[in-house]
Amino acid sequence: MTSHEPRQGKANEKSYKIVDQVLNRMLGKEATRTFYDHLKTTHSIQRHEIAQELNLFNHALKEYLGPGAAIIEHVIHKNLQLGVEESEADFPDRARILKLA
To answer: Of 20, 21, 56, 99, which residue is 20 to 30 A from 28 by alpha carbon distance?
Structure first.
């Protein structure tokens, strides 16, 4: 194990938490749970693997939400850049997703 692996593990965990919080906030808990089931069964990605599989995650999100995925991707990307957890700054975007879906 290199000295970078523990830091990368913590970064992956933080990234997963941010993604999880954005999905729960924007889709609701039930839809997020259903999406995670889709991710696992269709793409063989576990929730804790999202940070390592962002391209597949984004593909699955588009497959699941269609045009609404772009808004969620934007919010996730912005929160990951800022390292923001529990941010409510982008909550109004939920209405835009509901209109597109």
So the answer is: 56
Measuring CA to CA, which residue among 63, 99, 66, 81 is closest to residue 22?
81
Tracing tokens 């576990």 back to the chain, one arrives at: 46
Q: What is d(CA 46, CA 50) in angstroms, rounded to the nearest whole number?
A: 7
Summarised one tens digit per residue, pLDDT across range 44-84 is 999 888 888 888 999 999 999 999 899 999 999 888 888 76
CA atoms within 13 A on the CB side of 82: 14
Secondary structure class of 3 (helix, strand, coil): coil
- Residue 25 is classified by DSSP as H
